[in-house]
Amino acid sequence: MEFLLIGTVALLSFANGSNDNFKGVATLWGAGQTTYTRALTWATVFTLLGSLLAVGFASTLAAKFNGSALVAKQVYMQVPFLAAVALGGAAAVLLASRLGLPISTTHALTAHSLAQVRWLPDTPV
Q1: Would residue 18 count as lying in a domain?
Q2: Model pLDDT, residue 70
Q3: HEC letters along the chain
Q4: Rounded distance, CA 84 to CA 124, Å?
Q5: Which of 3, 21, 66, 87 has the most crowded Cβ, counting Cβ within 10 A?
Q6: Residue-wise pLDDT tens for the chain (125 aa)?
Q7: What contacts 24+ positions apart, CB below 8 Å, involve 100-104?
Q8: For residue 55, what are the contacts with CB-CB under 8 A and spacing of at least 6?
Q9: How many structural domains is the chain composed of?
Q10: Residue 33: which domain range?
Q11: What is the pLDDT of residue 119?
């Protein structure tokens, strides 16, 4: 079951990167200040550096943003619940990215957390 969670989180990470990676340098490319390839390289390098830096803050962030404000601990600690939320969030972000629509990964995850709770029987919210 843990492999399912790892796979859905990897898909969510891919979706988030495909949606957000270029946003930080899009203005440079759009204004003609750099080439598309160079802007994409900058975006990728700085996203990688940011993710490596975030590893140091991960435990603190995970403790603060763990879903406890939305659902009870016995719900958000279940692997199927986490996998369903990650898969739903990834699907929403990938679809919006493909259609060229703006989307927030955080909002997609929050919405899918609430949607999963709605369909779980006898869930303490």
Answers
A1: yes
A2: 72
A3: CHHHHHHHHHHHHHHHHHHHCCCCCHHHHHCCCCCHHHHHHHHHHHHHHHHHHHHHHHHHHHHHCCCCCCCCHHHHCCHHHHHHHHHHHHHHHHHHHHHCCCCCHHHHHHHHHHHHHHHCCCCCC
A4: 17
A5: 87
A6: 788 889 998 998 888 887 777 778 888 889 999 999 999 899 889 888 887 888 777 767 766 766 677 777 777 788 888 888 899 999 999 999 888 888 888 888 888 887 776 665 555 55
A7: 103/19
A8: none
A9: 1
A10: 2-119
A11: 62
pLDDT at 103: 87
Name residues whose C-beta falls within 8 Å of residue 93's C-beta, 6 or more positions apart in sequence: 12, 15, 16, 18, 19, 103, 105, 108
Q: Is residue 48 part of a domain?
A: yes
Residue 124 lies in a domain: no
In a domain, 110, yes or no: yes
